[in-house]
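Students often ask why inverse folding is considered easier than folding. One informal answer: many sequences map to the same fold, so there is more than one right answer. In these notes we will look at a single instance of the problem. The structure comes first.
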């Protein structure tokens, strides 16, 4: 039955591998069950309602991806987009969260239209092969920096106040050594949580070096248990791993579509659409490439279906009461664990449903246990860099910018945008403009227009 649905033999995998991969993906994504309610709760939404929407939305859309597309890619409310929704739209602009959900719903309809008309598929097909591989590598570094930050191995300062010119001159004139605050630096390695994360990283690395099946899952669970022993993970008094979900407070169908239209939120709707467009394209291309789903012509079978599921996911999430649901880069963790089919996504989706009953247990897994898995995934996704022709500067520079801007600007969309602008520009200047698909020129113009006329 499962073989017929997911073509397991054709993808050179089996049920046990896919189940482990699905669990691994879920373990690296489970943080969204706690982070999303916190962020959207800042915008005045009921946290329990957001938790319900997050778990149900992730479960439904991930299973749609698994059954309808047979891709090992899970989906959930997107980080970054939820912050934009809460802090920029609701808090910053004073828009009610119901109207903001309406804007998310409308952006989903735009996605559905772009997918049905084959525009989104054309974007992927027109993407240069070098940029496709660069996207994979860039996402790997993006995942790595997330893992390093969550683990505490790396510290990122959220604010930087540069010294004034007068202070610099005065200090230099008095012979005082100049000191500048760094934005990224090593964390405090003596910290118990950081040491636990380092253990998890080395433990998973050893398991993977010995080709032990389910290395990441074993590593996550072992690190969590060690965290309990070390007293880092606190088990509350009267702890029960099982609890019934509370459906009394929900935000089902609370969105205000008419309000979004009447308020003229086209800029907001366009921003949701723009960021989601490139984030999803990057995640789908990067994860599908890592899973070996790209054919010899650089194309992906059923990519249209994958994008359609993603598009419906945006609107489904808003109907349930959460911000944009999108494909998750953490899906690469499941792929690295052996996931090759939609069964991985289905298992992950089922676990999101079950998470409604096991939220106390899921809450015990610390960042120090999941962060090492993300770092390992980043290392595995670096493999794609060898497919980029660094002897051709018109190929290497756009790929380089795509790679480095993803982690350094903390945005997949920014990295892809840079590549899309620089690639056709260099090809035109060197008289090789015909090597570029026409859709890339259109995208380049749209990207430039977006950064000139719109700001997040």
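Output (designed amino acids):
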């Amino acid at each position: 039955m499962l073989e017929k649905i997911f073509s397991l033999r054709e993808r050179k995998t089996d049920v046990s591998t896919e189940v482990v991969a699905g669990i691994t993906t879920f373990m690296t994504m489970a943080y969204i069950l706690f982070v999303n309610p916190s962020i959207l709760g800042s915008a005045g939404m009921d946290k329990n309602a957001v938790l319900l929407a997050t778990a149900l939305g992730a479960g439904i859309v991930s299973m749609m991806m698994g059954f309808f597309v047979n891709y090992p890619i899970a989906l959930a409310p997107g980080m970054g987009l939820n912050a934009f929704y809460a802090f920029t739209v609701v808090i910053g602009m004073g828009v009610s969260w119901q109207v903001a959900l309406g804007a998310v719903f409308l952006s989903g309809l735009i996605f559905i239209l772009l997918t049905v008309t084959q525009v989104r598929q054309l974007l992927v097909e027109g993407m240069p092969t070098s940029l496709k591989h660069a996207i994979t590598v860039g996402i790997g570094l993006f995942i790595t920096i997330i893992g390093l930050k969550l683990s505490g191995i790396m510290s990122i300062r959220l604010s930087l106040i540069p010294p004034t010119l007068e202070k610099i001159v005065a200090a230099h004139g008095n012979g005082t050594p100049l000191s500048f605050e760094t934005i990224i630096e090593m964390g405090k390695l003596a910290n118990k949580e950081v040491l636990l994360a380092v253990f998890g990283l080395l433990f998973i690395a050893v398991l993977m070096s010995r080709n032990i099946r389910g290395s990441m899952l074993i590593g996550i669970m072992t690190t969590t248990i060690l965290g309990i022993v070390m007293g880092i993970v606190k088990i509350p008094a009267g702890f029960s791993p099982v609890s019934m979900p509370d459906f009394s407070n929900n935000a089902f169908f609370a969105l205000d579509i008419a309000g979004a239209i009447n308020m003229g939120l086209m800029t907001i709707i366009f921003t949701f659409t723009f960021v989601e467009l490139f984030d999803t394209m990057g995640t789908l291309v990067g994860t599908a490439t890592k899973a070996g789903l790209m054919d010899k012509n650089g194309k992906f079978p059923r990519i249209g279906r994958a994008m359609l599921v993603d598009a419906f996911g945006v609107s489904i999430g808003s109907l349930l009461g959460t911000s944009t649901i999108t494909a998750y880069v953490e899906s690469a963790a499941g792929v690295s664990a052996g996931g090759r089919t939609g069964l991985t996504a289905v298992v992950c989706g089922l676990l999101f449903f079950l998470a409604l009953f096991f939220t106390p247990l899921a809450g015990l897994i610390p960042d120090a246990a999941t962060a090492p898995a993300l770092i390992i995934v980043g290392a595995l996704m670096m493999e794609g860099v060898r497919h980029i022709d660094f002897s051709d500067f018109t190929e290497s520079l756009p790929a380089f910018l795509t790679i480095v801007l993803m982690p350094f600007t903390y945005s997949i969309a920014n990295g892809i945008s840079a590549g899309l602008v620089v690639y056709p520009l260099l090809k035109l200047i060197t008289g090789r403009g015909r090597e570029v698909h026409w859709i890339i020129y259109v995208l380049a113009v749209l990207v430039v227009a977006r950064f000139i006329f719109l700001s997040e």
